[in-house]
Amino acid sequence: MLDYETLKVIWWLLVGVLLVGFAVMDGHDMGVGTLLPFVGKDDTERRVIINTVGPHWDGNQVWFITGGGAIFAAWPLVYATAFSGFYWAMLAVLWALFFRPVGFDYRSKIDNATWRTTWDWGLFVGGAVPPLIFGVAFGNLLQGVPFHFDANLVPYYEGSFWGLLNPFALLAGVVSSAMITFHGAVYLAHRTEGDIQQRAIRAALLFGVIALVAFAAAGVWVQSIPGYVIAAGADPAGLPNPLAKEVVREAGAWMVNYRHQPLLWAVPALAFLGGLAALWAVRAGRTFFAFWASSVMIAGVIGTAGVAMFPFILPSSSDPRSSLTVWDSVSSHLTLTVMFWATVIFMPLIIAYTSWAYKVMAGKVTKAYILENEKQAY
Amino acid sequence: MSETLVDLSRLQFAATAMYHFLFVPLTLGLTWMLVIMESLYVMTGKQVYQDMVKFWGKLFGINFALGVTTGITMEFQFGTNWAYYSHYVGDIFGAPLAIEGLMAFFLESTFIGLFFFGWNRLSRTQHLLVTLLMAVGTNLSALWILVANGWMQNPVGSEFSFQTMRMEMTNFWDVIFNPVAQAKFVHTVSAGYVTGAMFVLSISAYYLLKKRDLEFAKRSFRVAAAFGFASACSVVVLGDESGYTMAEKQQSKLAAMEAMWETEPAPAGLKLIAGIDEADQRNTWELEIPWVLGIIGTRSLDTPLPGIKEIIARNRERVESGVEAVKALNVLRRDASDSQALALFETHKQNLGFGLLTRKYVADISQVTPEIMDKAAASTVPPVKPLFWTFRIMVLLGFSFIALFAVALWYSVKDTFTEKRWLLRWALWFLPLPWIASEMGWFVAEYGRQPWTIAEVLPTHLSVSTLSVQSLYGSLAGFVGFYTLLLIVELYLMFRFGRLGPSSLGTGRYHWERQGAMQSA
């Protein structure tokens, strides 16, 4: 059995893997959904776009569901505090996501222009809103969130929904939105041909540049916002108790990990390299490579924020000692062990059969395919 | 916690869960029917069987979309609305939820894509395998969520830790092989199979009554009759298994369901119906079958089942001990090394949940009076009337399903069911009933768990998030409005495609397409 401290770090990595998996897999569906009303000029074109993700969006969405479940199991205090605190933001994500299953499945079942356009915009909402909100949420995590625990560890959130919409958080929202739309555009370019592909490539170039510029701007800005540092009391190997430590706020504290361990600069570097490579490749028509490169960019961007904050997960701006960290918001040693083995067993299986599903459905989705499968395709 | 906040949180959870369960049972049942139909296709090579898979699969997809939509909420609502619950039991409860995602949701959701879009890219056997894996995934998800739910009813394999102020897992296998979870799993999936079978049986009966697409409808009807009969029998038999585990693990729920005020001499009788006087804690009249409840509940003739009054009296003592546990815990939270408090806490620990019940009436544990303890003890048995009647409706429906499927199977074997219009009409009118039975079943299970979220461990009123009442009104209205709108859209599509029948596949082989061809000619 792995020791408690090691497992706590492993679970930080695993949650990161799930988040990156979600952003790469569900992200490209969401990017495609965001682009749908703009890149698809008529009904057949829109059906082509929808059917590039048609067989896969449901499996991909499970990264989101499983991410939620894994945070519940591994970091119950984070699950409890973040989702109840960000109540309306979370509901906005859920309600936006409601449009996707029904949008995909119901849209083309009725041959009526109003019906279909309505669902197209539903798919747009389901694709565009979640990445924006997740970005804004990350922007707030980096600044700290106003909450505290009482002696029985009941969480109290003291902020409001509108307080989440501050300038830095909105910039983080732009990074996230542009990155996911970029990724979706790259995927779309890979799975389509002709006019649709050309429009997807143009969208990719636009959103890729926005994402990289916004990410660089956020990187500069983050050096001057107050970060958080554990001053005393956190015991990495001990029983989790978030109230046992002392935390201080310090400008530039999010750069400390990078200063102590310069190798970590590789993570933001990957974000830039991946993004630039994806931009070059999608322009050159090497769309398959571009998809992997934009995936690397996503991993780099999420990793950059994670590394900066480590060991913090959810810092508290109003009561810093209530901040949740990798050491004190975790579940028990046994549960982390059980969940570790469950992940080790199932994650490779999931990757294997997901790859097989993509292999079976590989190739361009064409207008001819839609016309031949009028009744069966989405 | 304000009472209104707690009530609204419960109402929202109940509403979203019950909406979700409008779609789940049909998914559970239809997947296996699709596997059966597709196996027939692979074995016989007959086109009609492939058409059956595709058409019933289309209706399956319409239903599945809303199952996914309403399911997204469930994974996150513990966090958004039940924050203290999530902290207090996440160590145990979160694990099956996460494993459900890893083991079941990925499987069903990945293969459902290939089920719909893989027909021309997979061999027949490969496609059958895809359908089978989708069915396995669907049913595994039911297993894991019922492991989680079973733990709420009967929290095994765990222990309270005062250092972390929460329940922690002590034995993962105990959590999985929780007898309540296992009994609930088989009962719930059987109920889903009945729903799937009823859906196919009723709609096929509709085509037969309209004399359309006879070959297609007859074959579908037969598959549904056979699968439905087996499922309806198992749902009742396995429901009885639930009764047995309940008598051991959930005595207050059973006593309330049966309106059993007094401990009766063994073996207790089963009340068919009764006039319930909740205020005076008695029944004004009863119609009873002797012995049956005692035998179902205890599988013996001489073990008595405790009545409500006895349970409350026993729990009064547990509340008193629980109050001591809470007091000791408060000391330990300030000073973990206080050995006197620790010893006291260890003595009363198993009644901690009962002590927490008093928090509903007074925040400060030192203010608890004997009257408050009386109230807390009285609250440990849920209201009798709603449980008594919903349970009876569910059971009555269960037996009526066996009757319908038995008759349908009988005439399927004799191959004369197409002429029995009374049978076809009976089948058609029974279409909505499995959903009613399922919702009643969940009501009994979850309302009967009150006043706890985790039986005898965590009271409901302590479990909620500290949100504003306005937020709850807003989100409740949002969920109900959104879901109702989507439900209307779903039903519209279901009826439309149900009426169209296999003609919706666009093969040119079925009723409306030929009709259309004749008109244009």
Q: Major sheet of chain B: size, sense and barrel closure?
A: 2 strands, antiparallel
Please give the number of β-strands of chain A.
6
Task: Output the radius of gyration of chain B.
Answer: 26 Å
Overall shape of chain B:
globular
Spatial order of the strands forming the largest sheet of chain A: 1-2
| Class from helix and strand fractions of chain A | mainly alpha
Report the order of strands and helices of chain A.
Answer: HHHHHHEEHHEEHHHEEHH
- What is the average per-residue confidence, as pLDDT of chain B, rounded to a whole number? 93
How much of the sequence lies in strands of chain A comes to: 5-15%
Percent in helix of chain A: 55-70%
Radius of gyration of chain A: 21 Å
In terms of DSSP E residues, the strand content of chain B is 5-15%
Give your account of this protein's structure.
- The complex is a heterodimer of chains A (378) and B (521).
- Chain A has 378 residues and is mainly alpha-helical.
- Chain A is built from 13 helices and 6 strands.
- In chain A, the strands form 3 sheets. Chain A has a two-stranded antiparallel sheet with strand order 1-2. A two-stranded antiparallel ribbon of chain A has the order 3-4. A two-stranded antiparallel sheet of chain A has the order 5-6.
- In chain A, helix 1 runs parallel beside helix 12 and helix 3 packs antiparallel against helix 12.
- The model of chain A has no long low-confidence stretch (mean pLDDT 96).
- Chain B has 19 helices and 6 strands.
- The mean pLDDT of chain B is 93.
- With 521 residues, chain B is mainly α.
- Chain B has a domain of 45 residues.
- In chain B, strand 3 and strand 4 form a beta hairpin.
- The interface between A and B is large, with 72 and 76 residues.
